[in-house]
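Sharing a chain and its predicted structure for anyone who wants a worked example. Both blocks are below, sequence first, C-alpha coordinates second.
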Amino acid sequence: MKRKNHIACCLLFILSLSVQSIFAQKANFIGTLTQQNHWVDSVYKKLSRKERIGQLFYVRAHTNKGQHYEDSVAMVIQDEHIGGLVFFQGGPVRHANLINSYQKLSKVPLLIAMDGEWGLGMRLDSSVSYPYQMTLGAVQDNNLIYKMGQMVAYDFKRLGMHINFAPDMDVNNNPNNPVINYRSFGDNKYNVAQKGIAYFKGMQDAGLIVFAKHFPGHGDTNVDSHYDLPLLPFTRARLDSLEEYPFREAIAAGVSGVMIAHMSIPALDSTKNLPSTLSRPIVTGILKDSLGFKGIVASDAMEMAGVTKYFPNGEADVRAFLAGNDLIELSVNSQNAAKLILKAIRKKKITKAEFEAKVKKLLAAKYWAGLDAYKPTTPKNIIQDINRPAAAELIQQLADAAITVLKGDSRTLRQSPFKKTAIVSIGVDRPTVFQMELSKWYANSMIFLVGRNTSLTDLNRMLQTLKGFDQIFVSIHDTRIRPASKLDYSSDVKFLISALAAKPNVVTSVFANPYTIAGLPGIEKSAGILVGYQKDDAMQRSAVKVITGSMKPAGKLPVSVNMYFTTGMGMSF
Protein backbone atom coordinates (compact mmCIF):
# COMPACT_ATOMS: atom_id res chain seq x y z
CA MET A 1 0.00 0.00 0.00
CA LYS A 2 2.86 2.36 0.90
CA ARG A 3 4.57 1.57 -2.42
CA LYS A 4 1.36 2.44 -4.36
CA ASN A 5 1.10 5.75 -2.50
CA HIS A 6 4.76 6.44 -3.23
CA ILE A 7 4.20 5.79 -6.97
CA ALA A 8 1.11 8.01 -6.97
CA CYS A 9 3.04 10.83 -5.30
CA CYS A 10 5.84 10.50 -7.85
CA LEU A 11 3.37 10.65 -10.73
CA LEU A 12 1.76 13.76 -9.26
CA PHE A 13 5.18 15.34 -8.84
CA ILE A 14 6.14 14.57 -12.46
CA LEU A 15 2.79 15.94 -13.70
CA SER A 16 3.33 19.08 -11.65
CA LEU A 17 6.79 19.55 -13.13
CA SER A 18 5.49 19.06 -16.68
CA VAL A 19 2.76 21.68 -16.18
CA GLN A 20 5.31 24.08 -14.68
CA SER A 21 7.66 23.53 -17.64
CA ILE A 22 4.89 24.42 -20.10
CA PHE A 23 4.32 27.78 -18.44
CA ALA A 24 7.79 28.41 -16.99
CA GLN A 25 8.71 32.08 -17.31
CA LYS A 26 11.40 32.65 -19.94
CA ALA A 27 14.09 35.34 -19.70
CA ASN A 28 13.13 38.56 -21.49
CA PHE A 29 14.37 38.62 -25.09
CA ILE A 30 15.38 42.29 -25.01
CA GLY A 31 17.70 41.64 -22.08
CA THR A 32 19.59 38.97 -24.02
CA LEU A 33 20.50 41.32 -26.88
CA THR A 34 23.26 43.04 -24.92
CA GLN A 35 24.91 39.72 -24.05
CA GLN A 36 27.65 38.04 -26.06
CA ASN A 37 26.12 35.12 -27.98
CA HIS A 38 28.60 32.64 -29.43
CA TRP A 39 25.95 30.75 -31.40
CA VAL A 40 24.78 33.96 -33.09
CA ASP A 41 28.35 35.04 -33.86
CA SER A 42 29.25 31.61 -35.21
CA VAL A 43 26.21 31.37 -37.49
CA TYR A 44 26.67 34.95 -38.73
CA LYS A 45 30.31 34.29 -39.71
CA LYS A 46 29.33 31.21 -41.72
CA LEU A 47 26.73 33.06 -43.80
CA SER A 48 27.53 34.78 -47.07
CA ARG A 49 26.26 38.33 -47.61
CA LYS A 50 23.42 36.96 -49.73
CA GLU A 51 22.46 34.52 -46.96
CA ARG A 52 22.60 37.30 -44.38
CA ILE A 53 20.22 39.39 -46.45
CA GLY A 54 17.94 36.35 -46.77
CA GLN A 55 17.57 36.27 -42.98
CA LEU A 56 15.58 39.51 -43.18
CA PHE A 57 12.77 38.02 -45.29
CA TYR A 58 9.70 36.14 -44.04
CA VAL A 59 7.47 34.73 -46.78
CA ARG A 60 3.91 33.44 -46.93
CA ALA A 61 3.07 29.75 -46.35
CA HIS A 62 -0.24 27.82 -46.49
CA THR A 63 -1.44 24.26 -46.17
CA ASN A 64 -4.68 24.80 -48.07
CA LYS A 65 -3.27 25.72 -51.48
CA GLY A 66 -2.02 22.38 -52.73
CA GLN A 67 1.31 20.71 -53.43
CA HIS A 68 2.47 23.10 -56.13
CA TYR A 69 2.23 26.07 -53.75
CA GLU A 70 4.02 24.18 -50.98
CA ASP A 71 6.81 23.20 -53.41
CA SER A 72 7.24 26.81 -54.52
CA VAL A 73 7.79 27.89 -50.91
CA ALA A 74 10.33 25.07 -50.49
CA MET A 75 12.28 26.43 -53.47
CA VAL A 76 12.35 29.92 -51.93
CA ILE A 77 13.70 28.47 -48.67
CA GLN A 78 16.51 26.67 -50.49
CA ASP A 79 17.37 29.34 -53.07
CA GLU A 80 17.01 32.53 -51.03
CA HIS A 81 18.03 31.32 -47.55
CA ILE A 82 15.15 33.24 -45.98
CA GLY A 83 14.90 33.82 -42.24
CA GLY A 84 11.38 32.53 -41.69
CA LEU A 85 7.83 31.85 -42.78
CA VAL A 86 4.47 33.39 -41.98
CA PHE A 87 1.79 30.70 -41.99
CA PHE A 88 -1.79 31.41 -42.98
CA GLN A 89 -4.85 29.21 -43.63
CA GLY A 90 -4.81 25.44 -43.32
CA GLY A 91 -5.00 22.84 -40.58
CA PRO A 92 -2.89 22.33 -37.43
CA VAL A 93 -1.59 18.83 -38.24
CA ARG A 94 -0.83 19.80 -41.84
CA HIS A 95 0.93 22.91 -40.54
CA ALA A 96 3.07 20.90 -38.10
CA ASN A 97 4.06 18.39 -40.76
CA LEU A 98 4.90 21.07 -43.32
CA ILE A 99 6.90 23.09 -40.77
CA ASN A 100 8.94 19.97 -40.03
CA SER A 101 9.53 19.46 -43.77
CA TYR A 102 10.53 23.07 -44.37
CA GLN A 103 12.94 23.10 -41.43
CA LYS A 104 14.89 20.22 -43.01
CA LEU A 105 15.52 22.38 -46.08
CA SER A 106 16.98 25.40 -44.29
CA LYS A 107 20.66 25.94 -43.57
CA VAL A 108 19.71 28.01 -40.50
CA PRO A 109 16.53 26.93 -38.67
CA LEU A 110 13.51 29.01 -39.67
CA LEU A 111 11.50 31.20 -37.33
CA ILE A 112 7.85 30.33 -37.93
CA ALA A 113 5.26 33.08 -37.48
CA MET A 114 1.51 33.55 -37.68
CA ASP A 115 -1.07 36.24 -36.99
CA GLY A 116 -2.94 34.75 -34.05
CA GLU A 117 -4.57 37.67 -32.25
CA TRP A 118 -7.21 35.33 -30.84
CA GLY A 119 -5.08 32.19 -31.10
CA LEU A 120 -4.67 29.51 -33.76
CA GLY A 121 -8.35 29.73 -34.68
CA MET A 122 -7.70 33.09 -36.37
CA ARG A 123 -6.09 31.14 -39.24
CA LEU A 124 -6.57 27.41 -38.77
CA ASP A 125 -9.44 24.97 -38.84
CA SER A 126 -9.91 22.47 -35.99
CA SER A 127 -8.27 24.93 -33.61
CA VAL A 128 -9.29 26.86 -30.52
CA SER A 129 -10.29 30.52 -30.80
CA TYR A 130 -10.02 32.72 -27.74
CA PRO A 131 -12.10 35.93 -27.46
CA TYR A 132 -11.45 38.91 -29.73
CA GLN A 133 -9.46 41.77 -28.23
CA MET A 134 -12.55 44.01 -28.12
CA THR A 135 -14.15 41.38 -25.88
CA LEU A 136 -11.04 41.23 -23.71
CA GLY A 137 -11.21 45.02 -23.40
CA ALA A 138 -14.30 44.53 -21.19
CA VAL A 139 -12.52 42.14 -18.81
CA GLN A 140 -11.44 43.72 -15.52
CA ASP A 141 -9.15 40.90 -14.37
CA ASN A 142 -5.98 41.19 -16.47
CA ASN A 143 -4.63 37.98 -14.93
CA LEU A 144 -7.11 36.09 -17.11
CA ILE A 145 -5.68 37.79 -20.19
CA TYR A 146 -2.15 36.87 -19.08
CA LYS A 147 -3.29 33.23 -18.79
CA MET A 148 -4.75 33.43 -22.28
CA GLY A 149 -1.34 34.59 -23.51
CA GLN A 150 0.26 31.53 -21.92
CA MET A 151 -2.31 29.24 -23.54
CA VAL A 152 -1.78 30.81 -26.97
CA ALA A 153 1.99 30.41 -26.61
CA TYR A 154 1.58 26.73 -25.77
CA ASP A 155 -0.59 26.20 -28.87
CA PHE A 156 1.88 27.97 -31.16
CA LYS A 157 4.87 26.07 -29.82
CA ARG A 158 2.98 22.80 -30.04
CA LEU A 159 2.79 23.26 -33.82
CA GLY A 160 6.44 24.31 -34.08
CA MET A 161 5.86 28.08 -34.30
CA HIS A 162 7.83 30.79 -32.55
CA ILE A 163 6.32 34.19 -33.42
CA ASN A 164 2.85 35.63 -32.92
CA PHE A 165 2.24 38.93 -34.70
CA ALA A 166 0.11 40.08 -31.78
CA PRO A 167 -1.23 41.83 -29.77
CA ASP A 168 -2.97 44.64 -31.62
CA MET A 169 -2.24 47.73 -29.50
CA ASP A 170 -4.09 50.25 -31.65
CA VAL A 171 -6.49 52.59 -29.83
CA ASN A 172 -9.69 52.13 -31.83
CA ASN A 173 -11.32 55.54 -31.49
CA ASN A 174 -13.00 55.39 -34.91
CA PRO A 175 -16.15 53.19 -34.89
CA ASN A 176 -15.99 52.99 -38.70
CA ASN A 177 -12.45 51.64 -38.77
CA PRO A 178 -12.63 48.88 -41.39
CA VAL A 179 -9.44 47.03 -40.51
CA ILE A 180 -8.84 47.28 -36.71
CA ASN A 181 -12.15 47.73 -34.89
CA TYR A 182 -12.94 44.54 -32.89
CA ARG A 183 -9.22 43.62 -33.07
CA SER A 184 -8.49 46.44 -30.62
CA PHE A 185 -8.93 46.39 -26.84
CA GLY A 186 -10.98 49.58 -27.17
CA ASP A 187 -10.80 53.36 -27.31
CA ASN A 188 -9.23 54.04 -23.90
CA LYS A 189 -5.44 54.23 -24.28
CA TYR A 190 -4.80 53.16 -20.68
CA ASN A 191 -7.00 50.09 -21.01
CA VAL A 192 -5.41 49.21 -24.37
CA ALA A 193 -1.93 49.45 -22.86
CA GLN A 194 -2.76 47.38 -19.77
CA LYS A 195 -4.59 44.65 -21.67
CA GLY A 196 -1.94 44.52 -24.40
CA ILE A 197 0.86 44.18 -21.86
CA ALA A 198 -0.97 41.43 -19.94
CA TYR A 199 -1.53 39.51 -23.17
CA PHE A 200 1.97 39.81 -24.59
CA LYS A 201 3.62 39.09 -21.24
CA GLY A 202 1.66 35.85 -21.02
CA MET A 203 2.87 34.83 -24.47
CA GLN A 204 6.40 36.10 -24.03
CA ASP A 205 6.93 34.61 -20.58
CA ALA A 206 5.88 31.26 -22.07
CA GLY A 207 8.53 31.48 -24.79
CA LEU A 208 6.84 33.17 -27.76
CA ILE A 209 8.26 36.14 -29.66
CA VAL A 210 5.52 38.77 -29.91
CA PHE A 211 4.91 41.99 -31.83
CA ALA A 212 2.84 44.95 -30.67
CA LYS A 213 1.14 46.43 -33.73
CA HIS A 214 0.55 48.66 -35.73
CA PHE A 215 2.97 51.46 -34.74
CA PRO A 216 2.44 54.38 -34.43
CA GLY A 217 -1.31 53.55 -34.30
CA HIS A 218 -3.90 52.38 -36.83
CA GLY A 219 -6.99 52.96 -34.68
CA ASP A 220 -8.34 56.21 -36.13
CA THR A 221 -8.52 55.45 -39.84
CA ASN A 222 -11.42 54.80 -42.19
CA VAL A 223 -9.20 53.22 -44.87
CA ASP A 224 -7.98 49.62 -44.87
CA SER A 225 -4.24 49.63 -45.62
CA HIS A 226 -4.64 46.26 -47.34
CA TYR A 227 -6.29 48.19 -50.19
CA ASP A 228 -4.98 51.77 -50.03
CA LEU A 229 -2.74 54.11 -48.05
CA PRO A 230 -4.55 55.64 -45.05
CA LEU A 231 -3.84 59.24 -44.08
CA LEU A 232 -3.42 60.25 -40.44
CA PRO A 233 -3.90 64.04 -40.42
CA PHE A 234 -3.29 64.50 -36.70
CA THR A 235 -0.76 66.74 -34.95
CA ARG A 236 2.45 65.44 -33.46
CA ALA A 237 1.14 66.26 -29.98
CA ARG A 238 -2.03 64.21 -30.55
CA LEU A 239 -0.06 61.24 -31.89
CA ASP A 240 2.42 61.38 -29.00
CA SER A 241 -0.28 61.56 -26.34
CA LEU A 242 -2.80 59.08 -27.77
CA GLU A 243 -1.77 56.72 -30.58
CA GLU A 244 1.79 56.12 -29.38
CA TYR A 245 0.93 55.76 -25.70
CA PRO A 246 0.27 51.98 -25.64
CA PHE A 247 3.47 51.36 -27.63
CA ARG A 248 5.57 53.42 -25.21
CA GLU A 249 4.11 51.39 -22.35
CA ALA A 250 4.73 48.12 -24.21
CA ILE A 251 8.36 49.08 -24.83
CA ALA A 252 8.81 49.94 -21.15
CA ALA A 253 7.32 46.53 -20.28
CA GLY A 254 9.85 44.72 -22.49
CA VAL A 255 7.92 43.75 -25.62
CA SER A 256 10.13 41.73 -27.97
CA GLY A 257 8.86 43.20 -31.26
CA VAL A 258 6.95 46.09 -32.81
CA MET A 259 5.23 46.01 -36.20
CA ILE A 260 5.02 49.18 -38.30
CA ALA A 261 1.79 50.24 -40.02
CA HIS A 262 1.45 51.40 -43.63
CA MET A 263 0.11 54.94 -43.13
CA SER A 264 0.87 58.41 -44.44
CA ILE A 265 1.51 60.65 -41.39
CA PRO A 266 2.53 64.16 -42.48
CA ALA A 267 3.10 65.35 -38.90
CA LEU A 268 5.86 62.74 -38.52
CA ASP A 269 7.18 62.65 -42.10
CA SER A 270 5.95 65.15 -44.68
CA THR A 271 7.13 63.14 -47.71
CA LYS A 272 4.06 62.80 -49.92
CA ASN A 273 2.45 59.33 -50.07
CA LEU A 274 5.23 57.79 -48.00
CA PRO A 275 3.98 54.91 -45.82
CA SER A 276 5.26 55.01 -42.24
CA THR A 277 6.89 51.61 -42.89
CA LEU A 278 9.29 53.28 -45.32
CA SER A 279 10.03 56.36 -43.22
CA ARG A 280 13.37 56.50 -41.45
CA PRO A 281 12.24 59.48 -39.32
CA ILE A 282 9.39 57.29 -38.01
CA VAL A 283 10.98 53.83 -37.78
CA THR A 284 14.46 54.83 -36.66
CA GLY A 285 14.00 58.44 -35.50
CA ILE A 286 10.91 57.91 -33.33
CA LEU A 287 10.62 54.20 -32.52
CA LYS A 288 14.28 53.30 -32.14
CA ASP A 289 15.90 56.58 -31.10
CA SER A 290 13.22 58.60 -29.27
CA LEU A 291 11.33 55.70 -27.70
CA GLY A 292 14.48 53.62 -27.25
CA PHE A 293 13.10 50.40 -28.67
CA LYS A 294 15.86 47.77 -28.92
CA GLY A 295 13.82 44.75 -30.06
CA ILE A 296 12.82 43.50 -33.51
CA VAL A 297 11.09 45.96 -35.83
CA ALA A 298 8.87 44.25 -38.41
CA SER A 299 7.13 45.74 -41.40
CA ASP A 300 3.46 45.04 -41.89
CA ALA A 301 2.86 42.82 -44.92
CA MET A 302 4.79 44.30 -47.86
CA GLU A 303 2.25 42.86 -50.32
CA MET A 304 -0.45 45.27 -49.09
CA ALA A 305 -1.64 47.99 -51.46
CA GLY A 306 -1.02 50.60 -48.77
CA VAL A 307 2.71 50.21 -49.46
CA THR A 308 2.94 48.83 -53.03
CA LYS A 309 0.63 51.47 -54.58
CA TYR A 310 3.34 54.13 -54.65
CA PHE A 311 6.44 51.92 -54.34
CA PRO A 312 6.20 48.88 -56.65
CA ASN A 313 8.79 46.44 -58.00
CA GLY A 314 10.71 45.91 -54.76
CA GLU A 315 11.34 49.60 -54.06
CA ALA A 316 9.15 49.33 -50.97
CA ASP A 317 11.27 46.54 -49.53
CA VAL A 318 14.60 48.32 -49.88
CA ARG A 319 13.10 51.51 -48.45
CA ALA A 320 11.68 49.54 -45.50
CA PHE A 321 15.14 48.06 -44.94
CA LEU A 322 16.82 51.49 -45.04
CA ALA A 323 14.10 53.00 -42.82
CA GLY A 324 15.10 50.69 -39.99
CA ASN A 325 12.90 47.59 -40.27
CA ASP A 326 14.68 44.39 -39.25
CA LEU A 327 12.12 41.86 -40.46
CA ILE A 328 10.56 42.30 -43.90
CA GLU A 329 7.25 40.47 -43.98
CA LEU A 330 5.59 39.05 -47.10
CA SER A 331 7.55 40.73 -49.86
CA VAL A 332 5.83 40.63 -53.26
CA ASN A 333 9.12 39.40 -54.77
CA SER A 334 11.70 38.59 -52.11
CA GLN A 335 14.34 37.56 -54.65
CA ASN A 336 14.23 40.89 -56.46
CA ALA A 337 14.01 42.79 -53.16
CA ALA A 338 17.11 41.00 -51.86
CA LYS A 339 19.06 42.12 -54.95
CA LEU A 340 18.00 45.72 -54.39
CA ILE A 341 19.05 45.54 -50.74
CA LEU A 342 22.43 44.09 -51.77
CA LYS A 343 22.84 47.00 -54.17
CA ALA A 344 22.00 49.48 -51.39
CA ILE A 345 24.58 47.87 -49.09
CA ARG A 346 27.27 48.05 -51.81
CA LYS A 347 26.46 51.72 -52.34
CA LYS A 348 26.90 52.19 -48.57
CA LYS A 349 23.36 53.51 -48.03
CA ILE A 350 23.51 51.70 -44.71
CA THR A 351 26.47 51.21 -42.40
CA LYS A 352 28.06 47.81 -41.99
CA ALA A 353 27.36 47.95 -38.25
CA GLU A 354 23.64 48.63 -38.73
CA PHE A 355 23.23 45.79 -41.21
CA GLU A 356 25.13 43.39 -38.96
CA ALA A 357 23.00 44.40 -35.97
CA LYS A 358 19.78 43.65 -37.89
CA VAL A 359 20.86 40.17 -38.89
CA LYS A 360 22.33 39.31 -35.50
CA LYS A 361 19.14 40.49 -33.79
CA LEU A 362 17.10 38.06 -35.87
CA LEU A 363 19.60 35.28 -35.20
CA ALA A 364 19.40 36.10 -31.48
CA ALA A 365 15.63 35.62 -31.72
CA LYS A 366 16.24 32.17 -33.17
CA TYR A 367 18.55 31.36 -30.29
CA TRP A 368 16.03 32.69 -27.74
CA ALA A 369 13.32 30.52 -29.35
CA GLY A 370 15.52 27.43 -28.92
CA LEU A 371 16.45 26.98 -32.57
CA ASP A 372 20.11 26.49 -31.68
CA ALA A 373 18.97 23.01 -30.61
CA TYR A 374 16.06 22.57 -33.03
CA LYS A 375 13.82 19.55 -32.63
CA PRO A 376 10.89 18.73 -34.94
CA THR A 377 7.44 18.82 -33.41
CA THR A 378 5.41 15.63 -32.94
CA PRO A 379 2.17 15.69 -34.99
CA LYS A 380 0.55 12.95 -32.90
CA ASN A 381 -2.32 14.18 -30.67
CA ILE A 382 -2.00 17.81 -31.81
CA ILE A 383 -5.77 18.26 -32.22
CA GLN A 384 -6.44 16.99 -28.69
CA ASP A 385 -3.58 19.02 -27.23
CA ILE A 386 -4.64 22.38 -28.65
CA ASN A 387 -8.34 21.77 -27.96
CA ARG A 388 -7.73 20.68 -24.37
CA PRO A 389 -10.36 21.11 -21.63
CA ALA A 390 -8.29 23.82 -19.93
CA ALA A 391 -8.65 26.00 -23.03
CA ALA A 392 -12.44 25.68 -23.02
CA GLU A 393 -12.51 26.48 -19.30
CA LEU A 394 -10.45 29.64 -19.80
CA ILE A 395 -12.62 30.78 -22.72
CA GLN A 396 -15.69 30.47 -20.48
CA GLN A 397 -13.92 32.35 -17.68
CA LEU A 398 -13.04 35.15 -20.09
CA ALA A 399 -16.61 35.30 -21.37
CA ASP A 400 -17.95 35.39 -17.81
CA ALA A 401 -15.59 38.26 -17.01
CA ALA A 402 -16.47 40.20 -20.18
CA ILE A 403 -20.27 40.08 -20.24
CA THR A 404 -21.46 43.63 -19.60
CA VAL A 405 -24.77 44.94 -18.28
CA LEU A 406 -25.49 48.39 -19.70
CA LYS A 407 -28.97 48.73 -18.23
CA GLY A 408 -31.01 47.00 -15.56
CA ASP A 409 -30.50 45.31 -12.21
CA SER A 410 -30.82 41.75 -10.93
CA ARG A 411 -34.63 41.99 -10.59
CA THR A 412 -35.14 43.61 -13.99
CA LEU A 413 -33.00 41.07 -15.77
CA ARG A 414 -34.36 37.99 -14.02
CA GLN A 415 -38.03 38.86 -14.52
CA SER A 416 -40.30 36.08 -13.21
CA PRO A 417 -39.47 32.41 -13.76
CA PHE A 418 -43.20 31.57 -13.61
CA LYS A 419 -44.72 33.98 -16.14
CA LYS A 420 -45.38 33.26 -19.80
CA THR A 421 -42.03 33.98 -21.47
CA ALA A 422 -40.93 34.51 -25.08
CA ILE A 423 -37.26 33.98 -25.96
CA VAL A 424 -36.56 35.60 -29.33
CA SER A 425 -33.23 35.18 -31.16
CA ILE A 426 -32.63 37.50 -34.11
CA GLY A 427 -30.24 37.04 -37.03
CA VAL A 428 -30.29 33.23 -36.86
CA ASP A 429 -31.99 30.30 -38.54
CA ARG A 430 -31.86 27.76 -35.71
CA PRO A 431 -32.29 27.80 -31.92
CA THR A 432 -29.37 29.41 -30.15
CA VAL A 433 -27.39 28.36 -27.09
CA PHE A 434 -28.85 31.43 -25.38
CA GLN A 435 -32.39 30.16 -26.01
CA MET A 436 -31.70 26.56 -25.04
CA GLU A 437 -29.93 27.53 -21.80
CA LEU A 438 -32.41 30.24 -20.80
CA SER A 439 -35.47 28.08 -21.47
CA LYS A 440 -34.28 25.70 -18.72
CA TRP A 441 -34.99 28.47 -16.20
CA TYR A 442 -38.40 29.45 -17.57
CA ALA A 443 -40.80 26.51 -17.60
CA ASN A 444 -43.55 28.42 -19.39
CA SER A 445 -41.46 29.67 -22.30
CA MET A 446 -41.54 29.55 -26.09
CA ILE A 447 -38.70 30.05 -28.60
CA PHE A 448 -38.96 32.38 -31.62
CA LEU A 449 -36.47 32.74 -34.48
CA VAL A 450 -36.00 35.77 -36.71
CA GLY A 451 -33.67 35.72 -39.72
CA ARG A 452 -31.65 38.67 -40.99
CA ASN A 453 -34.19 39.25 -43.77
CA THR A 454 -37.43 37.81 -42.40
CA SER A 455 -40.41 39.25 -44.31
CA LEU A 456 -42.47 42.10 -42.91
CA THR A 457 -45.57 39.87 -42.99
CA ASP A 458 -43.91 37.27 -40.78
CA LEU A 459 -42.54 39.93 -38.44
CA ASN A 460 -45.97 41.50 -37.96
CA ARG A 461 -47.50 38.09 -37.34
CA MET A 462 -44.90 37.40 -34.67
CA LEU A 463 -45.48 40.77 -33.00
CA GLN A 464 -49.16 39.92 -32.74
CA THR A 465 -48.32 36.55 -31.18
CA LEU A 466 -45.97 38.15 -28.66
CA LYS A 467 -48.80 40.26 -27.27
CA GLY A 468 -49.89 37.11 -25.45
CA PHE A 469 -46.62 36.89 -23.47
CA ASP A 470 -45.86 38.55 -20.12
CA GLN A 471 -42.13 39.02 -20.64
CA ILE A 472 -39.65 38.78 -23.51
CA PHE A 473 -35.95 38.00 -23.75
CA VAL A 474 -34.37 39.14 -27.01
CA SER A 475 -30.94 38.12 -28.27
CA ILE A 476 -29.27 39.78 -31.26
CA HIS A 477 -26.66 37.73 -33.14
CA ASP A 478 -24.06 38.55 -35.77
CA THR A 479 -23.33 35.19 -37.37
CA ARG A 480 -20.67 36.50 -39.80
CA ILE A 481 -17.09 35.26 -39.42
CA ARG A 482 -15.91 38.76 -38.48
CA PRO A 483 -18.11 40.99 -36.27
CA ALA A 484 -18.49 44.22 -38.26
CA SER A 485 -19.59 47.50 -36.67
CA LYS A 486 -22.92 47.43 -38.50
CA LEU A 487 -25.37 44.52 -38.60
CA ASP A 488 -26.42 43.17 -42.00
CA TYR A 489 -30.10 43.07 -40.99
CA SER A 490 -32.94 44.37 -43.16
CA SER A 491 -34.55 47.66 -42.10
CA ASP A 492 -37.71 45.70 -41.19
CA VAL A 493 -35.79 43.47 -38.78
CA LYS A 494 -34.12 46.52 -37.21
CA PHE A 495 -37.58 48.06 -36.77
CA LEU A 496 -38.69 44.85 -35.02
CA ILE A 497 -35.83 45.24 -32.51
CA SER A 498 -36.96 48.82 -31.79
CA ALA A 499 -40.60 47.74 -31.46
CA LEU A 500 -39.70 44.94 -29.03
CA ALA A 501 -37.48 47.22 -26.94
CA ALA A 502 -40.39 49.62 -26.45
CA LYS A 503 -42.47 46.89 -24.77
CA PRO A 504 -42.43 46.54 -20.96
CA ASN A 505 -40.42 43.70 -19.42
CA VAL A 506 -38.04 43.21 -22.38
CA VAL A 507 -34.40 42.27 -21.79
CA THR A 508 -32.08 42.53 -24.81
CA SER A 509 -28.72 40.77 -25.16
CA VAL A 510 -26.36 41.73 -28.00
CA PHE A 511 -23.95 39.03 -29.20
CA ALA A 512 -22.20 41.23 -31.74
CA ASN A 513 -19.67 44.01 -32.07
CA PRO A 514 -20.70 46.64 -29.47
CA TYR A 515 -20.65 49.35 -32.15
CA THR A 516 -23.70 47.69 -33.75
CA ILE A 517 -25.83 49.08 -30.92
CA ALA A 518 -25.49 52.56 -32.48
CA GLY A 519 -27.26 51.26 -35.60
CA LEU A 520 -30.25 49.99 -33.62
CA PRO A 521 -32.14 53.13 -32.56
CA GLY A 522 -34.69 52.43 -29.83
CA ILE A 523 -32.78 49.55 -28.28
CA GLU A 524 -31.93 51.82 -25.33
CA LYS A 525 -35.59 51.61 -24.24
CA SER A 526 -35.20 47.97 -23.25
CA ALA A 527 -35.71 47.33 -19.53
CA GLY A 528 -32.39 45.49 -19.49
CA ILE A 529 -29.44 45.45 -21.92
CA LEU A 530 -26.45 43.11 -21.94
CA VAL A 531 -23.49 43.16 -24.34
CA GLY A 532 -21.86 39.85 -25.24
CA TYR A 533 -19.46 41.25 -27.88
CA GLN A 534 -19.39 38.17 -30.14
CA LYS A 535 -21.51 35.22 -31.23
CA ASP A 536 -19.67 32.54 -29.22
CA ASP A 537 -21.52 29.89 -27.22
CA ALA A 538 -19.47 30.77 -24.14
CA MET A 539 -20.66 34.36 -24.25
CA GLN A 540 -24.29 33.27 -24.59
CA ARG A 541 -23.92 31.05 -21.54
CA SER A 542 -22.43 33.98 -19.62
CA ALA A 543 -25.44 36.15 -20.44
CA VAL A 544 -27.79 33.45 -19.15
CA LYS A 545 -25.79 33.22 -15.92
CA VAL A 546 -26.17 36.96 -15.32
CA ILE A 547 -29.86 37.03 -16.25
CA THR A 548 -30.70 34.15 -13.96
CA GLY A 549 -28.66 35.52 -11.05
CA SER A 550 -26.14 32.70 -10.92
CA MET A 551 -23.28 35.11 -11.66
CA LYS A 552 -22.60 38.80 -10.99
CA PRO A 553 -21.67 40.94 -14.01
CA ALA A 554 -18.23 42.55 -14.00
CA GLY A 555 -17.55 43.68 -17.59
CA LYS A 556 -17.10 47.32 -18.61
CA LEU A 557 -17.79 48.70 -22.08
CA PRO A 558 -14.38 49.19 -23.82
CA VAL A 559 -15.65 51.72 -26.41
CA SER A 560 -18.13 54.56 -26.65
CA VAL A 561 -21.08 53.47 -28.75
CA ASN A 562 -23.34 56.54 -28.63
CA MET A 563 -24.64 59.16 -26.19
CA TYR A 564 -26.38 56.47 -24.11
CA PHE A 565 -23.54 53.98 -23.79
CA THR A 566 -19.99 55.23 -23.26
CA THR A 567 -16.58 53.80 -22.43
CA GLY A 568 -16.36 52.28 -18.96
CA MET A 569 -20.08 51.70 -18.48
CA GLY A 570 -21.11 48.47 -16.84
CA MET A 571 -23.49 47.64 -13.99
CA SER A 572 -22.34 45.56 -11.03
CA PHE A 573 -24.83 44.02 -8.62
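Comments welcome. The chain has 23 helices and 14 strands.
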